[in-house]
Amino acid sequence: MNTDFLTPIHDDLEASLEMLMPGSIGNSILTHSKIKGFPELHNIQLALLGVEEDRNTDGNLGSGKDLHHIRSHFYKLFPGNWNVSMADLGNIKKGNLPSDTHFAITEVIKDLLKMNIIPIILGGGQDITFSNYKAYDQLEQTVNLVVVDSKFDLGSLDDKLSSKSYLSKIIMEVPTNLFNFSNIGYQTYLNPQEEIKLIQGLNFDTYRLAEAKEVETLEPVLRDADIVSIDIGSVRQSDAPANKNASPNGFYGDEICGIARYAGISDKVSSFGIYEFNSAFDSHNLTAHLIAQMIWCFIEGFNSRVKDYPFATKEDYQKFTVMLENDDPINFYKSNKTGRWWMEINLIQHNKYKRHALIPCTYQDYIETTNQLIPDRWFKAQSKMI
């Protein structure tokens, strides 16, 4: 891959590696350092990637600095019972213009995706999500984007790319590769009603903070994601103060870690980003420590992937067909490995949606369908294929 855009980890961090306790993550992760150079990525599964770009943030200049604080806490943690190979690729520094940085982000992530390496991105503004999304253009596949944020960051079509307008750029990108967008944790009083109505009118999925705090209900949403983008401002200020836009309300630390773990468990998630960390507002490195634990939980989930997507072999799942009153059937599939459920969407026109013909669901969705109540997620997915 092209390493010209990447700079080594911080000097202080490199010096601290020798003082880590035996068995800690920092003793096993391959690092891009001045002394060792760029690591060999053969057989690497996960890669840390810092991005220092903050010029398009919404009043949060300084995000992307001091990412070594996150790494320092992460390196000190001890791995679980993992069989995971990781590398730390260092940082993408700011280019002469924000567009230069975004070009570099897309190129680096594109190379990692082609190598089947999942990037764990540390930012920088959440507008980096747009460049992450553009990297998937090379894969010629439709994409499901899940964003954990108290705001939609939709903006208007006339706005320049920023952390408060990147979503409109993704939705309006031509040709569009976005199949579904899901927001987890939005707070109504922080979003204009017209934006809420627009997002819901596009048959996208939205989960208010109170609903999203039932973290286990989010598993099917994250199971269907390709990209997961987390604004650290979605966490309440008392648990994550390192954000100029921090709010007294939001997720607790254990809740955001649970979301990160579900993202890791998903067989589909192929990039994971945590954005808007601003060390100038951190208290005793509390946010840096939390983000390090979020990364740990994502990796814990990744290590637990079981690849139970239906149709692997007939012995791996059970099929249930529910006949509706109009004589149209809906097929459900239950994994024998995990007990997780999927439901089948009828492909109407576009063969490019083939990978979305099976969407994750819950046992409750199956029960409701047997009672002739078709789940909203089925209707929304079906409408996108017409």
Mean pLDDT: 93
How many DSSP-defined strands? 14
Report low-confidence residues grouped into runs of 5 or more. none
**Any guess at the CATH architecture of the largest domain?**
3-Layer(aba) Sandwich
Total DSSP helices: 12
| Alpha-beta classification | alpha/beta
What's the order of the H and E elements? Answer: EHEEHEHEHEHEHEHHEHEHEEEEHH
CATH class of the largest domain: Alpha Beta
Apparent shape: globular
Give me the CATH superfamily of the largest domain: Ureohydrolase domain
Strand coverage percent: 15-25%
Write down the domain tally: 2
What characterizes the major β-sheet?
10 strands, mixed
Q: Quote the CATH topology of the largest domain.
A: Arginase, Chain A
Give Rg in angstroms.
21 Å
Describe this structure in words.
It is a single chain. This protein has 386 residues and is an alpha/beta fold. It folds into two domains: 6-303, Arginase, Chain A (3-Layer(aba) Sandwich); 314-384, no CATH class. It has helices spanning 11-16, 68-76, 98-114, 128-135, 166-172, 193-201, 209-212, 219-223, 253-265, 286-303, 363-370, 376-384, and strands at 6-7, 30-31, 46-51, 86-92, 118-122, 143-148, 178-186, 205-208, 227-231, 271-275, 317-323, 329-335, 341-344, 358-361. Strands 1, 2, 3, 4, 5, 6, 7, 8, 9 and 10 form a ten-stranded mixed sheet that branches. α2 packs across α10 (286-303), α3 (98-114) runs parallel beside α4 (128-135) and α4 packs parallel to α5. The two termini are 39 Å apart. The model has no long low-confidence stretch (mean pLDDT 93).
